[in-house]
User: What shape does this take?
Amino acid sequence: MRKRLFDKKSHVDQFDSFLAQHIKKFLGKSSTSYKSFNINDQFIGIIADNDIRQTVKEIKEAKYFFINIDSTPDISHVNLLYLFFVLESHGLDINKCCRQRYDNASNMFGRYTGLQASIKEVNPLATFVQCLAHSLNLVGEYAVDRCRNLSEFFTLPQNI
Assistant: This one.
């Protein structure tokens, strides 16, 4: 169909010289590369959708699940509301959540106002476990802030 549309008999070249030159140069010489940004985004989207479906399936089949989030929402708690929306939209029951773990941002693990508190309101059995990797990172940051030699040691490579 495409070749018939642009062959010499269609007389497209009479109306548009640029299009005629393009057809003459590229007709029959094309190959599919799948390298455009749109195609890459579509591939990533397909893989992500498949991954989400598989993860949701595994969570639904499990007796319990836990939430592990490594992000810091803003003070508006948009991520908090989004978490509940995602769980609900995929048919996941927050009452099957047995653990929750976040980074050390107060708006995530705050005992009274953070995401931990919001989940515990709905499911009191979802115990909070502090993320040890983030805690260790904070210890390192605190040590560097308190020791001038360490601070200079870590600043030097960053300045190079």
